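Hi support team,

I submitted a single chain yesterday and got back a structure, but I'm not sure I'm reading the token output correctly. Could someone confirm the output below corresponds to the sequence I sent? I've pasted both exactly as they appear in my results page.

Thanks,
R.
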Amino acid sequence: MQRLPDMNLLPSLDALLRAGSVAGAAAEMRISASAMSRALGRLRRVVGDELLVPSGRGLTLTPRARELQPRVEAALASALAALRPQPELELGVLKREFTLRTNDGVAVMFGPALTERVLREAPGVRLRLLPEGEENPADLRDRIDLDVGQMHDLPHDIRTGRLGEYSYAAVARADGPYADERLTPERFAALPHITVTRRGRVRSVVDERLAELGLARDVLATAPTYTAACFFALRSDALALVPRRFAIEAARAMPLAVLDIPLDLPAYPLVQAWHLRVDTDPAHRWLRGALAEIVTALGPTGGPAGQTAPDAAI
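Hi R., thanks for writing in. Yes, this is the structure output for that exact sequence:
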């Protein structure tokens, strides 16, 4: 690799080209004239040009020096800008694309509120929501800005922030035979179930809790997404088990009833994760804060399930 010149010479070159004299440049740099003269000598060797030559009683710039002057000014300005503290974030003029990865539950629950906030506060921002798949935390190092869901065993360079917890509920078609029932464990186990799992798993913590009561359920079907499970429930007498907050939103858009699951089921943490590279980035911090505020505003009914790890069938 080519050896770089002494970059400390750049301010001296800028001062000499603007002042057109050793004495003037020395005064501007607050150094002695002899020190500036030595700097000029070094610059002549580096550039391969005299830069300043005698003209009458003073000095004048050579053609090469005049050619260099705007480039040196621009280079110095760029270097100084890179070393200054980051400017205050101006959301109104921010141009940025953020890539988020999550499942359809999070997209349905937080996506509308987040897009509304972006449109109101930062209209130059674009949100790219990618579906979950074979999640790899290393994706946060380059192609993913924010992961939202359940996070486990993350590398040391990944940061996380807890958003809250989510719990599950059941949905059934609103005109179905048990839409108004208060389910007992026995009745809950006797009804056909639709579960959500990307890997086709049938058994979950629900089956463990039922087994403790001497009960077992019949899983009619597994669906790949919560949205699909709701559509399955609309055309059957089966219960679809989905995150409670998602169930509430789905019931606002579809003729569905939300029913409590009569079992002691755990609540699950909802987390956002990002790479260290954007930890102090003002725009990314705004995005994380906006998402956290949206989740908090949803209240205590619980948020939707995030990414499964490895598979959150229920």
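A quick pointer for reading it: The longest strand covers residues 158-166. Let us know if anything else looks off.

Best,
Support desk
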